[in-house]
Model the fold of this input.
Amino acid sequence: MPRTGLSAEEIKARATDVALARMRLLGVDKVRITDVAKELGVSHAALYAHFADKAALLDAVTERWLCEIEQTLSSVASAAGDPVTRMGEWLVRLYQMKRKRALDDPEPHRAFDVAAALDKPFVIAHLNNQLRQLAGLFQEAGATFDGDAGLNARLMYTATAAYHHPTLVAQTAHMDHEPMLRQIIQLVLSGMTRNRNQTFNCPGTEMPTLTLRNATPADAARCYEIEISAYEGDEAATLEKIATRIALYPQGFLILEADGVVVGFINCGCADDVVMSDEAFKELVGHSAEAPNVVIMSVVVDPARQGKGYSTRLMTEFVQRMQAMGKKTIHLMCKDQHVELYKRMGYRYVQPSASDHGGMAWHEMVMDL
Done:
């Protein structure tokens, strides 16, 4: 056993943990085996006994995630109920996991994209395992469909490639295409059935009615409920702060409703000179409605409603409203995992923030209007 007291498998697991953390912090290109070894307290030569090179270490990160995907999908495939319904849920869950990775973990997702483009053996094995699970569902459906179950699985997987291929998912992750995917699944399954008059309903194809409006005092309690469910600890605004923001600047407090239920919001204040680390400004101390620079305090979507493109819908409307009001810039702070998301929305990176709001590290970003 090595001097660390860890077994060979434990060292591999810990090295994978450290590599993932460094990918998130520094990016794929700056991960070094020597740095990982130093953090583990072993020599880099010792790590080479487990990983042939940096690429092998990055592959270990990706392979672990693909195994997690397979386990989740296996649970969906083996659940009780109609196998055709489970096919739809299996494909939707696959999309949700791939999209979440692209949004929340862009650097690890980029490593996966590279490995897929190179047809790495573990990626091919992952693909084959997915096809076996999907074929098992077609086989379970029996006489419902014409043709071989394995061929049908490959046809369905190919027809929905835009929703699980890493490159394509990364390009469209900022928009939620789940409703469209469900419609495509329904259409393809109906076309593959032996009875051409039979149709399938894929749950979730119904589109909610979305409404965007400014907040009123009556919204404070629901917004606070969403705030504390989405943010950690002291990071969340208090009910009093939310009520103050609505009372003092309702024009900068945008609400999103889905079928009449508040599911998310953005709120802000305006300043002539922006100091993102100014905690007092979060209670709109120093706010001036006529000032040209917008400072966002919260961008929040109910965790139960996330993954549907609501944050993008909110931000798009918010930006348009600020432009119509003649504002010049929009400023915000975000955590590491959201920097790439905001870049795709049109923000540019400014700097690490001096703010330690909620005891966390933040990054400042800005959009020029």
Summary: The chain has a mean pLDDT of 88.
